[in-house]
Amino acid sequence: MTGKVRFADFEVDFRTGELRRRGILIPVQGKPLSVLAILVERPGELVTRDDLYKALWPGQTFVDYDKNLGVAVAKLREVLEDSPVRPRLIETIPRRGYRFVGGLQPDPAAAPDPGVPQQTAAQPASQSSTPTVFARVSHNAPSIEPDRDAPPGLDGLNTRQRRVPRSLWAGAIAATVVISAGLYLRSRAQGGNIVSPPTASLKVNPEAQQDYLKAKEFSQRWIVDDVKTALIFDDRAIAIEPKYAPAFALRASLLERLGEMGVIENEEACHRARADALHAIELDPHRASGYISLAYIQMNHDWNLPGAEATLAKARHLAPSDVSTLNALAVLSRARGRLDRSIALQRQVIALDPLNSASYGGLAVRLFAAGKLDEALAAHRRALELDPQLEYIHLNRAEILLAKGLPTEALKEVELEPGELWRLLGEVLVLHDLGRTTESDAALQRLIATYPSEPYSIACAYAYRGEMGEAFTWLDRALERRDASLIAIQTDPLLTKLHADPRFANLLLRMKISP
Question: Which of 134, 305, 333, 461 could form a disulfide with 428, with the two C-beta atoms 3.0–4.6 Å apart?
């Protein structure tokens, strides 16, 4: 399949390998996408398992066809949210094959190509027949590795690699995604009793609650595709329940994050996020989540730390022991340079949620900034015990080992780092300290070429190497795009060499942050 096809809420472009739902990109791997292409070429018809074997694995003999095909179809159903028991899109014909039963629609943005055969989709008797435009299918659909098939995002970047900004790592994760302890009927503890806010009498549609829960689940990871998926579910929850305050608060944090990731233009993202946060407060002024989302916009986009402090004071009054409130306060304290207070707040977060690996990572970041290197390494160990694949941890460990004068050990940590952005940054730093200047230069050029829209991280690399002019050039770029990472500029150990330069004080002045 080489053209576009629409069905239900989905649009798939087989030329680019992109699947979208309501305009939001959904990650899909090569084989599942190939299965979809073959099925929609013959809508309403049985496509036998044998036909699929020959199309997906032509000429291959050492393949467990049944198992691999089953996995591909299961993954396709997962991204399409289709049930094998009550299929809306893909029907299983036991022991024979599969049939596409979704109503296909033509692409309104494209006129029919006179050189491409056109046909009408054959529909089951229970469904109406809809004219549709098809291109010929290539039955040699390529197999794409899971981590390589994500379409490029802005600046030509692989969207799977767009992660949380460096200086907001971990501390902001739990704060922006743990919007409330439960669904809409969040309760807070007071004197050992559980009480609900006065506006919790709204009976929320169960389907909206379920979509909100799914949105929160996907929002746990700072990966573009997962954040987009979270937004899809949250939008659906709001469409079903327009007065659902927590869903608006969550959408505010998701939009702000997509702006920082470069998926949505940053100014537009923050404008929409601010409106959602304010609306969440309007719907339920007795709930902390709206105030927390608004405070992050004030910190990350406006750099209005006094305003964020006032907003979070309201959140803390409403939910003094809420993890998301304490996390936001920890981020604010670090932004103000109050590392001891930030560390104390982060320890409170861990006491309330001792199995959250990101919370230990956030504590380690703050301990390192405060010069408590051994305590930071201990926090890292606990984070990795809980989640060995947690990103950024190995980079941060490498930074600490460099501070302790152990570049060889630091290199081993960098090699273990699963995040590409952080691994590249780590190579720049470690190879520089090892005296391997040419290799450090090469790693820096790869960092710039691969992540040009991460100016703060690039500035950190130049600053650590003592190249002040380039460091300030990239910090200026970060300032222009209102990079959220700048909020922790005063306490980032990689920028320490810049502090004595008059341009650093000028940068803080432009951000309206007091040194």
Answer: 461
- Counting beta carbons within 10 angstroms of the beta carbon of residue 68, is it exposed (0 to 12), middle (13 to 18) or buried (19 or more)? middle
Domain annotation covers residue 126: yes
Q: 270-314, pLDDT tens digit by residue?
A: 999 999 999 999 999 999 999 999 999 999 888 899 999 999 999
Locate 133 and state its tokens: 């435009």
At residue 100's C-alpha, the angle toward residues 98 and 103, to 5°, is: 165
CATH at 171: 1.25.40.10
With CA atoms as reference, report the closest residue to 512 among 487, 481, 492: 487
H helix runs in 139-265, sequence order = 171-177, 206-218, 224-240, 245-261
Q: What's the count of helices (H) and strands (E) in the chain, helices before strands?
A: 21, 12
Give the residue numbers spanning the domain of 241. 166-353
Amino acid, res. 425: L
| Same-domain status, 90 and 186 | no
Domain count, the chain: 2
Query: By three-state DSSP, how is residue 230 classified?
Result: helix
- Give φ, ψ of 194 to 5 degrees: -100, 120
Q: Which two tokens stand for residue 296?
A: 């992050």
Helix (H, G, I), strand (E, B) or coil at 131: strand
Q: How many CA atoms lie within 13 A of 44 on its CB side?
A: 15
What's the pLDDT tens digit per position in 332-380? 999 999 999 999 999 999 998 888 888 999 999 999 999 999 999 999 9
pTM over 0.70: no
End-to-end CA separation in angstroms for the chain? 58
- HEC string of 307-346 equals HHHHHHHHHHHHCCCCHHHHHHHHHHHHHCCCHHHHHHHH
The answer to the question of residue 201 being in a domain is: yes
